[in-house]
Write a structure and sequence with these properties.
By secondary structure, the protein is α/β, with parallel strands linked by helices. It has helices at 44-51, 54-73, 92-102, 119-130, 153-158, 264-271, 280-286; strands spanning 20-25, 81-87, 108-113, 137-142, 148-149, 169-172, 175-179, 186-190, 200-204, 231-234, 240-244, 260-261.
């Protein structure tokens, strides 16, 4: 889908509004919000330089194109919308590349925001424009642009759209962490609840005002969501894939915890049941060379 204008009046703008909406921050830089732990001491102008660095953006695109975006296209249940919230200051070449990647995908949207935008308002507005106003129960989920979701993620999340789960957070406990260091790729099985990838919240639908929307981001840091809402833990295997790719600003390192040394061939084999689109070439494309 083409870019959604940041200037239009807030309303349902998705071609096919859905009960399930994903929100992804794609190099979103705002004046009054800094959610990048590794650069939390930098001011706005310094953050722009860091986040919009050409080498960083190009590597983020490589990971997004090889790992993240295909996982959305591969979902067995396509009745969802994903909105990528980005910055109006994103370099023109990057805006064009992002536009070209999603323009033919019917349920993936891009919306740029001004630097002065309020981060909570960004998430509320993004969700409001994508959600089906007639849906009785809705869910929003989060995903970073360098992570991926198992091909049956949406189908499994939909099972939680029940009245008894309203105002609960859904966490998929079992997934993977993948280091993309080219000469030392490592895969780790992760069984910690409250991983950021695929973390979701369930709420009543029929919301008529953007200010009344609640999204998964309103609960704060993902490791502490259970302090603000009851937690539903799904034990399904392999539901998310989080990467360490050399340009993480979340603090995730290339050396994953308790990793299992594997060849790229073995990594692909382990991931195939949940991420059948991943190939050795895709992993190599997304990989990076560690500094010596």
């Amino acid at each position: 889908m083409p870019y959604l204008s940041a200037d239009i009046t807030t309303g349902q703008t998705a071609t096919h509004p859905q009960a399930i909406v994903g929100i992804m921050r794609f190099s979103l830089v705002l004046r009054r919000a800094n959610y990048f732990p590794n650069i939390k001491e930098l001011d706005f102008e310094e953050r722009l330089v860091e986040i919009f660095d050409e080498a960083r953006l190009k590597k983020r695109f490589e990971v997004f194109e090889a790992i993240c975006l295909p996982s959305l296209v591969a979902q067995s249940d396509q009745a969802f919308n994903m909105i990528l919230v980005t910055s109006k200051l994103l370099p023109a070449w990057a805006q064009m590349r992002l536009h070209d990647l999603v323009k033919d995908l019917p349920n993936i949207y891009v919306k740029p925001f001004r630097p002065k935008a309020d981060i909570k308002r960004v998430f509320k507005r993004a969700a409001f424009e994508m959600l089906d106003p007639e849906a009785q129960i809705i869910a929003t989920f989060q995903l970073d642009d360098d992570d991926a979701l198992a091909q049956d993620y949406i189908a499994k999340l939909r099972a939680y759209l029940r009245t008894e789960n309203v105002d609960h957070v859904v966490t998929f406990r079992n997934g993977f962490e993948l280091s993309l260091a080219r000469d030392n790729m490592q895969l780790r099985f992760d069984d910690r609840a409250k991983a950021s990838a695929g973390l979701a919240s369930v709420h009543r639908g029929g919301v008529e005002d953007v200010n009344d929307i609640t999204t998964i981001y309103q609960y704060g840091g993902h490791r502490k969501v259970d302090q603000k809402a009851p937690l539903l833990v799904d034990e399904s295997a392999g539901m998310y894939l989080q990467t360490a790719n050399g340009f993480n600003v979340s603090g995730r390192t290339a050396q994953t915890r308790k990793s299992i040394p594997m060849s790229t061939e073995e990594i692909v084999r382990q991931l195939h049941p949940h991420y059948p689109y991943l190939t050795e070439n895709a992993l190599l494309r997304a990989s990076f060379t560690q500094a010596s």
